[in-house]
Fold these 2 entries.
Entry 1:
Amino acid sequence: MNIRDYLRVLVKWRKLIIWNVFIITSIALAISLLLKEKYTSRASLLPPIPGTEFLGGEISTLASFSGMRGALGMSTPSDLFAKILESERIKDKVIEECDLRKVYKTKTTMATYSMLDKETDISVSPEGIITIATTSESPLLAKYMADSYIKSLDAANKNLTMSVGKRNRIFLEHRLEEVNEKLKKSEDALKNFQETHKTISIQDEILPILESISELRAKILANEVNLGILRKYATEENPKVVNIKSELSELHKKLSAMEYTGDDSHFGVGFSIPFKEVPNIQLNLARLTRDVLIQQKLFELLTEQYEKAKLQEVRDTPTVNILEEARVPERKSYPRRKIIVLATFIISFAAGVILAFFLNWAEELPPDEKNKWQEIWSMWRKKRDN
């Protein structure tokens, strides 16, 4: 066949093609006019920002980098947002606030869920931006539905964050009580130790003691030298020898008291600690001081965390970052009548052309070929009837 043969077929069956296009396109136009108009409102949310509270935890910079984590096939905070938005907990809030049971005229909750799912589209872009698209016959209701989704998500996140804050506050309260009790015991133990040994800081007191011991030993050496000189020309009963020996005896007693005895009547570390016990006393004092410092530092850290938990519990700042707020749509999103009519026109025209060529082929079949096709048709009808 050449181009003239094709044109001949089209001209021959032109009425069939025209009527086919006219009837089918008219039906499609009529149906599109009968379809109820619907409007779609869209809102966009940013992914959770690093450092903000999300589901009771703080979002890290890596976790918020949705593009990288999404490329690695890992869930992102935006994906979690989307899943929460699709949860029945959020749907219940939207249905209640927008009175959708009455709008959809449904009797069961599951039927309402099904209708709401059809009218809602929640998607996450590769950049992590969440889009909420809600459709309704009323432009205002479409906007209210999108706003309700965002409001319900924010309320759910804040509620969970507050619950975590409350649990943390209660836990920290108990820990603060325990640490405060331990701090008091440590402070009392240090105080009793210092009162018992009459010392505050051995490190500060040890130097004067060493100087006193050095002076005593120097005096003892000086007296022993003088005594040796006297003994070369004087007897033991000599008054000077007796005085030096007496003074040496007192110096030795005082040195012994400082080094080995240690009491209130002799000058020692803290006025009561013998010099030989200084290492042990110093170690015990250091340990007690360390315990007090540790408990004080722990108490400060827990107090800081406790204050943060109290703030977290009563925090009322939005947890959802809105990129684009939902607006009242000005144009309908459905039905798209022009597209419906145009698509139907093209499809009906193509179907009419195919039907025209088929009928032309059947009409020009030789008689014997027609008989064979009629036999096949008859056999099929008999089997159908049987």
Note: The chain is about 70% helix and 5% strand.
Entry 2:
Amino acid sequence: MESVLTRKTIATYAIGSLGTGGFATLPGLVLVIYMTDTLGIAPLAAGILVTAAKVWDVIIDPVIGARSDRSLALRGSRRPFMIAGALALPVFFILTFAVPAGTGPVVAGVWVLLAFLITATAFSLFQVPYIALPAELASGYDDRTKLISARVVVLTLAILIFGGGAPEIQKAFADPYTGYLVMAVVAGVLIGAGMLVSSFVARRGEPVAAESFSILDNYRAGMAALRRSQPFRSLLATFLLQGLATGLMLAGAAYLSKWVLGTGVTVLFLSLIAPAILFAPVWAIVSRRIGKERAFTIASILFGVAALSMVVMLWAPGEWVYAPVALAGAGYAGMQSLPMSMLPDVISHDAERTGPGSAGTFGGVWTAGETTGMALGSTVLTIVLAASGYLESVATVTVVQPPSAIAGIILAFSIVPAAIIALSLVTFARYPLRKADIDAVR
């Protein structure tokens, strides 16, 4: 039976991206530089801490996905998982940025690791079922594009609000420790509110009998989904690589603004997100004319070329960089919306071949892959910083970075992500589903 896609459903689902966009943006933007330039943690150690928390995500996401499927079968809804995550996340997000002044780097690092690990767990409780919902809320190739496009508009607005506004809140306080804490309180409340409202879009149905599965069975279900669905493997590998590229640039934006451009990160974010907001509906229109797959390829090439052009900052840094950043923003809108609208197509294609009931499992593996990409982006950045001689510092100490560190920041924002985007197009070349395939399933 087809699902009727109403405006209320679209709006309630999309508002969840206020939370997912905020959480995906803010830690990636400020967490590493918070550790290196305020807590005095060495770059490589900061990267290891962020990666460790994200590795935990990779471990638990498939379990949450399978348990979400089980909740749908037993209780008729994925809602309990989403509400639990929405309520827990703000508390531990605030704790992540609440390290007291004067805390040594080792203790501070352990504090951030534990608090952020629990925060990431709460986010997964919401995000994994949230990713699975479009396959259940909308029927058909174009309806899912419409649903995801609305989500991406809110997502890009969230990136603008959190990426541009949160650093300004932090800078408004003379004491960096207080600034980060106030920033975390404001952001945590907004993130949790968006997630909580969107939790109620998860439909309630009649419970059905469901088998009991162990945690090991949950992992087996995730691996089985990967093995049997070639479209899923191709799309996931592509999205993981692109998450790595965008995560690298996101984590590097604060460093680029501070050490290369000598400005706040807000202007850089405005240059990126304003075009993304404008182009999110454009990519939906383009995809209806030429297909999601071709539109996605064009968006990716646009982003990659824009990133590559910024290597010129090695010789001529300046405000001209905002132009290629704007082009990257236009491409980024398509790189986000189109794969997420293809994922429900993959799920429905699999359900037609093997039976329904695995949307949460697919969502769990997808979120694990996305998380891996974003986490590795921060890791790659910290490796480049460490290799290029970047100097960490505490909030009360001013340092001067060597030229090698400045060059490392620029390369991490240009050539490296461009090369990763090129590799992602190789993996995407094997994605087989087209509109006719999905319409046949429908």
Note: The domain at 7-203+221-441 is CATH 1.20.1250.20 (Growth Hormone; Chain: A;).
